[in-house]
């Protein structure tokens, strides 16, 4: 999901930065360059930088996007620094986008009950905590969720 969202934003003339969020088992590793992230279909993606909560603050960016993809969404949504930034972006009136299974970050970030959507594979985890919709895109204030980039 990262590739389609990133490509769409760049084609629209928006400056973007992709960041590698390490899984818990990768946290102890020291890298000089971000490693490739392997998509669920085997596509290797080279992020622009490592994720740094000190660098990804709302005063430096206009939008925070949490991509989907089963493993990636799980890794990103379980990151406490990402959860903190999701809340901070929304508190400061900035947009937060969550694509596909990336909507899990709404749950792990303890966002209040509000309308949202997600990929059908994570609906059961979200439906009791939010006003779940099967619409392709749901906008709730500054939180924008989608079922997927092509849905």
From TrEMBL:
GO biological process terms, alphabetically, are: glyoxal metabolic process; response to oxidative stress
**Which Pfam families does the UniProt record give?**
DJ-1_PfpI (PF01965)
State the name under which the record lists this protein: D-lactate dehydratase
Spell out the GO cellular component terms annotated for this protein, sorted alphabetically and separated by semicolons. mitochondrion; nucleus
Organism the protein comes from: Hermanssonia centrifuga
Its EC top class is lyase
Q: Which InterPro entries match?
A: Class_I_gatase-like, DJ-1/PfpI, Prot/Nucl_acid_deglycase
- Reaction(s) catalysed by this chain's protein: methylglyoxal + H2O = (R)-lactate + H(+)
What SUPFAM superfamilies does this protein map onto?
Class I glutamine amidotransferase-like (SSF52317)
Under Enzyme Commission nomenclature, its number is: 4.2.1.130
Task: Write out the GO MF terms.
Answer: glyoxalase III activity
Q: Which stretches make up the DJ-1/PfpI domain?
A: 3-150
